[in-house]
Design goal:
The structure holds two protein chains of two kinds. Chain A is α/β, with parallel strands linked by helices. Helices cover about 45% and strands about 10% of the residues of chain A. In chain A, strand 7, helix 9 and strand 8 form a beta-alpha-beta unit. The longest helix of chain A is centred in the middle third of the chain and has 26 residues. Chain A is globular. Chain B is an alpha+beta fold. The longest helix of chain B is centred in the N-terminal third of the chain and has 37 residues. Chain B is built from five helices and 18 strands. Chain B folds into two domains: about 60 residues; about 260 residues, Porin (Beta Barrel). Helices cover about 15% and strands about 45% of the residues of chain B. In chain B, strand 8 and strand 9 form a beta hairpin. Chain B is elongated. The chains are: A alpha/beta, B alpha+beta. At the A-B interface, helix 1, helix 3, helix 4, strand 4 and helix 5 of A face strand 4 and strand 8 of B.
Chain lengths: ~325, ~450
């Protein structure tokens, strides 16, 4: 009996140890830094990959902790997709370094900087200093909030997957084409939904929405943060309230990971709607994929704009 | 491209010249002539197509040269780091371990010029003040005990290097300087150089990242204080595969010199450190980090007139535990870290072997985006006298104006084995400029 028990244990341990190995051989293991990239990777990779994100969609992607459990994920990864533009500067480098995985080292065979073909806004010109707050010298990293950039990210991922699995090239290309055309269709729909509100002035908490605003014709006139990464100060909040009143701004967009105290105070002072707008897939439960991200955000925005009756002049 | 155009025109012209000739010759063998013409036409078409293809290929190449440089995707897949050499990432954006981007064109643009290969540089100032009463171990009223300068970059496709120079009031010291090979076959992480040893938690941390203004008493008494076990040597760390949790084993060999803790009188007097670290996510927000450490080396207690007559050794055993809580959605506003380290020292010395023991236990709670409160309890005997106990309590308040600066106040009450009980208020300003790599968790 004792012998049988130990044999069972041995078998269980052997299965447990063997399982991840067998799994890795079947599908490409894609690890992404954010859920948006994982969602796009799934669109392109279909059932030939597994995609998993390090950060959650409701988490501030600038401040993810470099937990050792993520090292294990990276150790087994065939592909690492990063947002780039120094978004992950505070936590991804030590994870990569400790991953012991040559494939996911920067410049490695499985490393993708998804920003390479994307349209990047707010690239600082001239001298930059930290007096400007936590500026990103390589431009605003929140570029995935433009469906056109979604296509560029998908192309990057598809090319890499095809490179690593040449036999599946046509599969990935076909899925990329399918994703791109669905995104084009959806993009037209979103654009027509937002068309009546073109030029609407809004305020956002952090500079998370420049690509979204550019694509859908919003005019971001100010930020709750006085400078990127610097929490709101009373003087700045007062100035912002006055500016919002002057320009008749009726919507404040807040990322789900920021405190609502200051935005709510601004809302009370200006009558503006305070919207918690997820900038990422997984930011709220309903936003399960890249399409739903825009569906949700646009519907939320339009609902609020109708309510406050702010339409383009 | 112009030459190709001319060539194409010549081919077309000559084909036209050839083609009419058979047409003019009205021989009875017209059938054969027609076939010949047909054949020539085909050849001409093929030739045209060939030139067309070559032309478009050249145009594509030209576009690629003129277009903004692209990521290394166009390359064939490179199975290992050896094959990436031609397109190795450029280090300037490479903060911390490996850096962002990895695309030569992004960071290596013409505008960056010769600075492109400069390492990331940062300077971290640490200003300390002390007020109150301490007759046993008084710190200066105002001091700039350490300024750290760091230089970090990728060396080549196989390694990165980190240098930390410490500018103190007494001079400059190489706090750490090592090369790391992050992708060695066999899943090893290898480091060579001078480094802080992987004994417990606090010993691995630089002064600017410890959550207090001082180091706990147990570190001062048993682990060589601020300097800690920090020595020249090499380190090999390996992940121990298992399906349940993160487990890392580290083995380190050093020259054997760490202040009063270890002293090497002969070349063979090396010191050794072994560390086993387990980590597990209890929930999405909570995790636990456990470690055990061991260290061995020669101590200086048997040295008489520069000769190590005693050949005495010290063995250290350590256990550390860290519990962290940080709700993901509110991660920038709330967090808690509870930590403790227990250290046993077995020190041979002329009189009698001393078995000292000490520990600290601390908790830090972040109650606002920029505010942290903390408590710490310390107790430790002395490495050379296990009957002498020091103990202490601290209360801390830390404020972060931004990620790059920090102000801290600490009330500390220390009861020394010999001497008056000290009541002190310590205050600290820390400020960082430049690009300092992210710290490991």
């Amino acid at each position: 009996m004792k012998f049988r028990l130990s044999k069972t244990w041995l078998a269980l341990v052997a299965i447990a140890l063997a399982a991840p190995v067998a799994h890795a051989q079947d599908k490409l293991t894609v690890v992404t830094t954010t859920e948006d990239l994982a969602a796009i990777a799934r669109e392109v990779g279909g059932d030939r990959i597994t995609a998993e994100s390090i950060a959650r969609g409701y988490q501030d992607p600038h401040f993810v902790e470099a937990k050792p459990s993520f090292i294990l994920k990276l150790q087994k990864a065939d592909v690492l997709v990063a947002v780039g533009r120094e978004l992950e500067i505070g936590w991804l480098p030590p994870l990569i370094q400790q991953s012991r995985n040559a494939k996911v080292q920067v410049g490695g065979a499985g490393y993708i900087d998804a920003s390479q073909q994307a349209r990047i806004l707010e690239i600082p010109q001239g001298q930059i200093t930290r007096a400007m707050g936590d500026v990103h010298p390589l431009g605003n990293p929140h570029y995935w909030l433009d469906p056109e950039n979604g296509k560029a990210i998908a192309k990057e991922i598809s090319d890499k997957l095809a490179q690593l699995r040449p036999n599946d090239r046509s599969f990935f290309e076909q899925r990329l084409n399918d994703f791109t055309s669905r995104l084009t269709e959806a993009g037209k729909r979103w654009a027509s939904m937002m068309a009546p509100y073109k030029g609407t002035k809004v305020v956002t908490y952090h500079r998370s929405f420049p690509n979204f605003a550019e694509r859908f014709g919003l005019d971001v006139i100010g930020y709750v943060e006085p400078r990127p990464g610097i929490p709101p100060s009373p003087q700045h909040t007062l100035d912002l309230i006055n500016e919002m009143k002057r320009q008749n701004v009726k919507v404040v967009m807040v990322e789900p990971y920021f405190d609502l105290k200051t935005p709510n105070a601004i809302g009370r002072a200006t009558g503006a709607e305070i919207l918690v707008v997820p900038p990422s897939v997984g930011g709220v439960k309903e936003v399960a994929d890249y399409f739903k991200l825009f569906d949700y955000d646009i519907n939320l925005l339009i609902g609020a704009l109708k309510k406050v009756g702010t339409q383009a002049q | 491209m112009r030459n190709l155009g001319i060539a194409r025109a010549c081919v077309v012209a000559s084909a036209l010249l050839i083609a009419p000739a058979p047409l003019r010759a009205q021989t009875p063998d017209a059938q054969a002539m027609r076939q010949e013409i047909e054949q020539l036409r085909k050849e001409l078409d093929a030739l045209q197509k060939q030139y067309g293809d070559r032309l478009s290929a050249l145009e594509t190449k030209l576009d690629a040269v003129q277009a903004p440089p692209q990521q290394a995707d166009a390359k064939p897949p490179a199975p290992g780091p050896q094959e990436q050499q031609p397109t190795a990432p450029v280090p300037p954006g490479a903060e911390g371990a490996g850096g962002p981007g990895g695309a030569l064109p992004v960071y290596g643009g013409a505008s960056a010029g010769s600075k492109v290969f400069n390492p990331d540089m940062a300077v971290i100032g640490n200003f300390l003040g002390a007020a109150g009463h301490n007759t046993v171990n008084p710190a200066p009223a105002l001091a700039m005990p350490e300024t750290e300068a760091s230089f970090q970059a990728i060396v080549d496709p196989y390694a990165r290097a980190d240098f930390f120079l410490s500018f103190g009031e007494e001079g400059v010291d190489l706090e750490e300087g090592f090369i790391t090979f992050p992708a060695i076959p066999g899943g090893l992480l290898v480091r060579v150089g001078k480094m802080r040893a992987a004994f417990g938690k606090v010993n691995t941390l630089h002064n600017h990242v410890i959550p207090w203004s001082d180091r706990p008493i147990v570190i001062d008494n048993l682990l060589n204080g601020d300097e800690g076990i920090s020595d020249a040597g090499f380190s090999v760390a390996r992940l121990v595969p298992n399906p349940w949790f993160f487990l890392e084993a580290t083995g380190q060999v050093f020259r054997g010199d760490s202040g009063d803790l270890f002293h090497s009188s002969e070349r063979s007097d090396l010191s050794y450190v072994a560390h086993l670290r387990g980590y597990h996510d209890l929930t999405e927000n909570t995790n636990i980090d456990l470690g055990t450490s061991y260290s061995f080396g020669h101590n200086p207690s048997g040295i008489v007139d520069d000769v190590d007559l005693g050949r005495f050794t010290t063995q250290l055993y350590g256990v550390d535990a860290t519990l962290r809580w940080r709700p993901l959605q509110r991660s920038i506003y709330r967090s808690f870290v509870g930590r403790s380290e227990l250290i046993w020292s077995r020190r041979e010395q002329p009189e009698l072997q001393q078995g000292a023991f000490g520990y600290y236990i601390s908790g830090d709670y972040q109650f606002a985006r920029r505010w942290f409160g903390g408590v710490r309890y310390d107790r430790s005997s002395h490495a050379d006298d296990d009957t002498a106990h020091d103990s202490g309590q601290s209360l801390l308040l830390t404020y972060w104006p931004s990620e790059f600066s920090q102000v801290r106040g600490q009330y500390r009450r220390t009861k020394y084995a010999v001497g008056d009980t000290a009541n002190e208020f310590l205050f600290q300003f820390q400020f960082s400029i430049g690009a300092h790599g992210a710290h490991p968790f």
